[in-house]
Amino acid sequence: MKSQKITDSQHGPSRRRYDDACGTAHALDLVGERWALLVMRELMLGPKRFGDIRADLPGISANVLTQRLEGLEASGLVVRRRLPPPASTQVYELTDWGHEAEPIVQALGRWAARSPAHDPTLPLSGTSLMLSFRTMFDAARAEGMTARIGFRIGAETYVAQIGGGRIETARGDPAGADLVLAGPATAIAGLVYGGVPLAALEAEGALEVEGDRALAARFATLFPLPLKADVPA
Chain centroid to CA 5: how far? Predict the structure, then answer.
């Protein structure tokens, strides 16, 4: 008798389940495997190639990334498709339902930022940084502000549009922006979340600024981190 690989079509290959009717338990059935939610995070701003996802998650192995993408596909959260010529390359992207997880990612990020053990100086991807801006944006601090801010982070470019007490971030060409910040995501995070002076980042060659420097200074104040939680010593 031939051996047969058994796959749960709803939950992906080799997926362990909680067998609990609670919606929270089923959510963990879907995205609770290590790296799964971070893979989804990296697709929040649009499709990516396998190699690009792996590059933005430096701690993940190719084998584990393959498993997570297969599991997310089987669950209906991710699809893969081939871009038309001249690219003709395979990419992965979130389904409409997969995109609905963004508020979950944001809520988790804001909640976890209150941990005394959270270290904002650790590496992060450009996508993660852009999503953090959506999460931590303080509309009151941006009152009356209208601006288009561009970012060059490695080979990727992004644009943040601020206006009407809202911020929208996306991949895009920063040409014509009021301000462009160029450098690694960690340097931009240091300016925004770490309180590192703009001049200091420029002096050490970590960050380049094009355009309205006063806007850069104000932009850095729009994303206050929540207070740390009181935990037993």
Answer: 34
Same-domain pairing of 191 and 208: yes
Beta-sheet pairing, 179-182 with 147-153: parallel
Amino acid at 104: I
Q: Report the pLDDT value the prediction gives residue 101, as an integer from 0 to 100.
A: 97
- The answer to whether residue 7 is domain-embedded is no
Of 100, 122, 144, which marks where a domain is finished? 100
CA angle 107, 112, 113 (to 5 degrees): 100
Is there a contact between 142 and 220 (Cβ–Cβ < 8 Å)? no
CB atoms within 10 A of CB 232: 3
pLDDT at 15: 60
Domain that holds residue 141: 107-219
pLDDT tens-digit series, residues 104-137 = 999 999 999 999 999 888 889 999 999 999 999 9
The number of folded domains in the chain is 2
